[in-house]
């Protein structure tokens, strides 16, 4: 038996579409452009990337929902194209969102139904369902209808559903999306407990703190390619030699952003809208103090909190993704896209 739970070489996926009626045109969109992965058994591995980077498409090729255009992949030692049935028997797939559960059934009835679909032996179903309800923290609520569950409870039930057939490998595709902070913390604990039992977990997420806390190694994918791979501490080295200035502001204009990006020593500029406020993050060389120039560049803008700090994994991630964009990795002019999520049930 191979020591690798997941191995992929040169994995590619191209989507072909047709537009127009009178003069139809065919278009190709390259979603994944030669991904190489090697995930040992028992590892909690993170796959990070912006929307449209190719994360979900990569996961769908690994769990047999999409056929690769080129390249090869083996999951649990079996080829994802030639041995689809064997792969599906050994994997679970959990995705973020509300789909995949029956609202008018209780959690218990949902798990009984999916246990039949997953081929769990009738003599094992009661024990296995009880174990999973306890694992995901739904004991005492399992007989309630799912329609009354919070989003966090639904996500924990999704994880239980994906574990019914005791998979060797679990794919978690943004499981905490849209979940409140308290429920997200409970989900992280559930995932950590799961990984400690020896199950291989491949996690995609947009939350850097979540990846930093949970993952042994992380791959950053952008423009359909792996741009960086290593432990969270190793990835943070991509922000070495930098300092970070955070400015809470109200009404920053595009022109002001352009001016700040042109300041000497500035490496990355990011603006995120948080309610009525904007959070401006400026990464700069440690040898250059840009705070005064940045604040001067925001003349006329109402300012809130101003903080200088050391780089985090999120700052390193922004640096990696922006570098990939600057390098023009998708030089054919087409941007990679992720396909919609689906439910994988073992054959």
Q: What does this molecule look like?
A:
Residues 336-347 have a biased composition (Low complexity). This is ATP-binding cassette domain-containing protein. It is a peripheral membrane protein. The protein has helices spanning 55-62, 84-88, 107-117, 122-135, 151-162, 181-196, 208-214, 232-235, 254-261, 291-297, 313-327, and strands at residues 4-19, 25-40, 44-48, 70-75, 78-79, 91-95, 169-173, 200-204, 217-222, 225-230, 242-250, 266-274, 277-285, 302-309. It is of the alpha/beta class and 347 residues long. A hairpin with a 5-residue loop joins strand 1 (4-19) and strand 2 (25-40). Helix 3 (107-117) crosses helix 4 and helix 5 runs parallel beside helix 6 (181-196). It is globular and about 70 Å long. The two termini are 22 Å apart. The model is unreliable at 329-347 (pLDDT under 50).
Defining key terms:
P-loop_NTPase, alpha/beta, ATP-binding, ABC_transporter_ATP-binding, six-stranded mixed beta sheet, 347 residues, single chain, ABC_transporter-like_ATP-bd
Approximate helicity band: 25-40%
| Cα separation of the termini | 22 Å
Main β-sheet, spatial strand arrangement: 6-7-8-3-9-10
Indicate the structural class: alpha/beta
Q: What is the average per-residue confidence, as pLDDT, rounded to a whole number? A: 87
Approximate strand percentage: 25-35%
